[in-house]
Design a protein that fits this description.
Chain lengths: ~180, ~240, ~180
């Protein structure tokens, strides 16, 4: 199949898919393997170039292991009017701390989260479950058989990450120490 | 030397956060924390917090106890065997602070990413309407949490058959929200206790309270409470009258 | 504002809106009335013409008093692949309720499910059996010898659970939920 036709199919799929379009899913939609003359990445690149050239109000984002259409940043002031007066709800500091701990240590129990934060974290865990940024993933093997938490696909989308491996590296304790010493000087 | 603790209490996420603040403010060495000074400052804060009924007051009190324990251990004469290594009583606290600091910084990085993603909105396609032969379903969108909540909701209704026999009163959250809005147009502040006496049934009261919570969430109202179990003081919020 | 700019804004709004974009909603998003030199219908018409000319895989549909972006019918054979078979489709509320009851009450008969839900549950049981989320496990000892249902191994694997004993307990849900009131303070 020609690139032009493949691009149209991918465009239709991106339009209709409520979740990021992965290579696997794309292949499943194509059915006839013989028609797949190009990989998804190449098709996406060419489509992206079209959108840039024709000045579309949206673009393609690589997120959560696939591709998804997003509106361009310039239109935020208009688009946010669709949702609430204030647009997207921002996460609280408590929720961000809890997410940080889960994202680097997952799967993790509530106790581990609270041991690090030094404070009860029930309500931030609940907020994050409600917003689908966290999910419950089985139970700990330990004696308490505590519930385990991990981050979700929605987490990756929310922070614009392709995978958790793309999170910035957690600072080593030694780095923090040396920074502190420098601040003292 | 003792600077007054004039800080906004909402700034702190917990006792570790407060300790990090004190360390930074007074340029203390995290590797050699002056435990007497920091305990004193910390306790001064907890005194303040007690009056203000912090949500996590218990965690602060617990930390105060830990600090006092460390302080006591540092005052004890050290009698150790020759080959026994003496651990600094502050080591565990230091490790906790450093570990917490790592994640606090990671949270800060996440916040930056959140800010960067804010202006982008994902495509939200209209729901797919399946044809007849396609009434299949899978779990990709369902979380275990949804299953828990669904069951909890179902079973609550099921195990309380008496609730079906109660006369259904004509009362809705939007009605009660409208009522509160009308009151707030003429009054700057309403005491929640004054509402309690107006409603003849608990159901109406509960619905009003739910409506109030909803308005709080959408910032149409603000609620103040000086102490736990004290009366709630309702006033107009930032988004009052915009919905 | 120029038609070109208005078209881009409308395109961004159509992209991000979860429901059809109405004239009212559009005006709310625009804020500055003075910028509205054209009505939504005119802008949509021009945008539609652009899509037709450039051979896009999507088009604008007028529904429920508003406008929505939908994929063109020619691409339905591909788009279907996103949702069917191993594709994704939201579990209906009925199916979710049935699944929740079986999860916590298994092994369970159809009668018990229907007693809790208060409605006929035949079709959701069938859907869940088809999708291999439920299995039939023998018959009840009672007079009717009714079929007993339980969740499948696939169901447990999906949520990373070793056994149904590892499902979150109701007590654990309530612990999370009970934090609610404190948020008030």
């Amino acid at each position: 199949m020609e690139l032009t036709d493949l691009k149209k199919i991918v465009e239709a799929l991106l339009m209709a898919s409520p979740i990021p379009l992965t290579e696997t899913r794309f292949k499943m939609c194509m059915k006839d393997e013989a028609e797949l003359t190009l990989g998804l990445e190449e098709i996406i690149e060419s489509l992206q170039a079209d959108y840039d050239d024709s000045g579309r109000a949206f673009t393609i984002k690589k997120v959560a292991g696939g591709y998804q259409l997003v509106t361009r940043a310039d239109f935020e002031i208009y688009v946010k009017g669709l949702f609430t007066k204030t647009g997207k709800l921002r996460l609280s500091q408590a929720a961000l701390e809890t997410l940080a701990i889960v994202s680097y240590r997952q799967p993790v129990t509530r106790n581990e989260i609270e041991a690090i934060r030094g404070v009860n974290s029930d309500s931030s865990i609940r907020t994050l479950l409600d917003r689908k940024l966290l999910e419950i993933r089985g139970r700990d093997d330990g004696p308490g058989r505590a519930l385990l938490y991990r981050t979700s696909t929605e987490f990756l989308q929310y922070f614009g990450l392709d995978s958790v491996k793309d999170l910035p590296k957690l600072k080593e304790v030694e780095d923090l120490l040396s920074e502190d010493q420098q601040e003292l000087v | 030397m003792n600077r007054p603790l004039r800080v906004d209490l909402d700034m702190f996420e917990g006792p570790l956060d407060l300790l990090l603040f004190l360390i930074k403010r007074d340029e203390l060495n995290i590797y050699d924390i002056p435990i007497s000074k920091i305990t004193r400052d910390f306790l001064a804060f907890v005194e303040l917090a007690k009056e203000l009924q912090l949500h996590s007051a218990g965690d602060f009190v617990l930390m105060a106890a830990t600090l006092m324990k460390i302080k006591a251990r540092m005052l004890l004469p050290i009698e150790a065997e020759h080959d026994e290594e003496i651990e600094d009583p502050r080591t565990e606290l230091m490790n906790m602070l450093l570990e917490y600091k790592r994640y606090k910084e990671a949270a800060h990085a996440l916040e930056g990413m959140e800010r960067q993603e804010r202006p982008h909105y994902y495509r939200l396609p209209p729901p797919w309407v399946p044809g007849e032969e396609e009434t299949t379903a899978i779990l990709e969108d369902v979380k275990l949490y949804d299953i828990m909540l669904t069951f909890q909701y179902l079973i609550k209704n099921y195990e309380d058959p008496a609730s079906h026999m109660v006369d259904i009163e004509e009362v809705s959250m939007s009605e009660q929200a409208g009522y509160l809005m009308t009151l707030l147009q003429t009054q700057d502040k309403i005491q929640f206790s004054s509402l309690i006496h107006q409603f003849e049934s608990r159901l109406v009261l509960v619905v009003t309270f739910l409506a109030l919570l909803d308005m709080l969430r959408s910032r149409q109202v603000r609620i103040k409470q000086s102490q736990l179990f004290d009366d709630l003081l309702i006033s107009r919020g930032k988004e009052f009258g915009t919905h």
